Amino acid sequence: MLNFFRNLRRNIKSWESFIQAGHQALESNKYTEAKEAFDEALRKAEDDGQEESIATTLMWLARMYHRQQQYAEAVSHLQRALIIWEKTAGGHNQPLVQVLTGLGLCYIAQEKFEEAIEFLTRALVAVEGFEVVNELNLADILKRLSWAHCAQGNYVKAESLCRRALSIQENLKEADSGEVVDIILTLIICCRRQQRLQEVDVLLARLLEILRQAGFDPATLAINISAAGQKLLHEHRYGAEDVLSNALLIRVRTLDPHHRDIAMTLNDLGLLYWEQSRYGEAEQVFTRAMGIYSIALGPEDCFVGMTHLNLALLFQDIERNDEADAHFLRALSIAERASGTAPENLLPDILQHYAGFLRKLNRSSEAETFEGRARNPIPLSASRPSEAPAPEPTITAPEAAPAVSLSTVTLYQPDKVLEQRLGSTATFSSFLRAAIAETDAYWSALPRSEAQSAELVVAIRPGGRARFWFEFSLRSNCQDEITGLMSRLSTLTVPEVHGGPVAAVLHLSVRGGLSTNRAADSEPYIPVEWREAAKNSGTSLVVPDDILAIVWPE
Predict the structure, then answer these.
(1) What is the pLDDT of residues 70-119, one digit of tens each?
(2) pTM of the model
(3) How many Å apart are CA 342 and CA 357, to the nearest integer?
(4) Is CB count within 10 Å lower at the N or C end of the chain?
(5) What residues does CATH 1.25.40.10 cover in the chain?
C-alpha cells in the first residue's frame, strides 16, 4: 500500500517540481531533503524514459555530493550523465561542458591531477568548438586547467593558460576584478616556480593596483589567502606552500617589516617545511618569525615562546639535542612569565614535550620533575589566593625579565662529533646553561644599558679548559664590562672533552634587545678574532679546530 501511494505521488508531481524542491533544499544545506527530492526526480525521469532529464538529475545529485565532499559519489553520477550527453547533439552541448568541468573539479579536489587535466582539456576543446563561445566559461576552464598543470609541475603550460584567461577577463566590458586577482595569483606562482622573480614583482604591483582601484584592502586579501593556505596545510593538501607564499608576498610588500602577520605566515611556512622534512628551510623561517614577533610584541610574548617550542621540536626531530634543549628552556621561561595573552595549554604543552625530550635522553629524574609540573602547571605570574596561602611555597612572585636571555644556539660541530668528544652532549648543554645564567647574573648587577643583542662563543678543549668570546652587535666601548664577564665565566666547572675541542655560539638578547640577522645567517657566527686569524693564515681552516689552534694555542 505504501508503494502504491509513493507511485501515485510520483505520477501526480512533475519531474520539474521534484528538481525545484531538491534545488531549494540544497541551497538551504538540507542534504537529506535534497537527496530525497532528487532521487524522486531520477525515478520519475527513468519511468518516463527521458534521458536528458535523467542526465540533468544526475548532475544535480553530483553537485549535492560535491558540496558534501563526497567526491567518489559525485564522479559516479557525473560519469553516468557524461554517457548520455555524449550521445546528444553529437557531443556538442553546454551540459556536456558542465559535466566535463565538474569531473575535472572533483579530481582536483581528490588531488588526481592527471585525470583533472584530461577532463578539463576535453571541456576546453568542447567550448572552443561552439559557434558562439561563452568567454566567461572559457576563462573559468582555462583558470582551473592552469591550476591542475601547476600541481603537476607544468609551470610553462600553466602560465600559458593563465595568460589566456587573464586576457579574456581584461577584454570584457565589465571585468570581474576578483577573477582577475585570482588569475594573477596563479601567474605569480608560475613565475616564482620558474625563478622569474622580476616578473613576480611586476605582477604583484599590478595586483595591488587592481585592488586599489576596486577599493579593496590588500590586508583583507592576505588574510583570506592565508586562511586558505592554513586550511590546505592542516588538510595536508597540495598548494599550501604556493598559497602561503602568496600571502607572505602581499604582507611583506604592504605591511611594516616587523608586523606580526608576516611572522604568522612565516610560522605556517615553517610548519609546512618541517612536515616535508625541509629542516633547514623550516629553521630559517621559524628564526625569522621569532625575530619579528620579538620586535613587534616583545621578547617575552607568548608567540615568541611558541616559536621557541617549534624550534625545540624541530631540533629534537633532527637530533640537534643541545639546541633543542636550549629552545625548550627558553620557551618554558617565556610561558612561565606569560607576558602575552598565552593559550591555557601553552605551559603544560611545553612541560609535556620537554619531559618527553628528557626521557629520550635518559634524563629520567629531570623528566619526572617536569611531568609533575605538567600535571599542575602554574605560571610564575600567577597570583595566590590571600585567604589560603600555601605553606613553604615553591613558586615565588613574578620575576623581573632577565637582563640576558638566550635567543638561539648554533653548534659549530655535528652532534656525532660532540658525542665522540664529550661522551654525552648533556654535559655540554648543562655547561652552556650555566654560562647563560652567569652572564645574566653578571649583567643584572651592572647599570642598565641600552637594549641590543650579543654573541657569546664558548669553546672547551681537553684538560678541563674553557675560553669565551663576547661581542655586542652595536656597542664597542665596553671592554671593561666584557673583561669582568670573562673573569666570572672562568670560574665555571668545565666538563671533560677528549680528542679535540668543542664549541658553540650563544645568540643572546641583552636588556630585551634582538638581532634578526646574526642569529639567522646561513653561515655560523664567527668572532672578530677568529676572522682575523683565518684571514692572516692564508689557508682554508676547519672551524673550530684549526682556528682555535691559532687563537688559543696549547
Answers:
(1) 999 999 999 999 999 988 766 567 899 999 999 999 999 999 999 999 99
(2) 0.65
(3) 22
(4) N
(5) 1-133
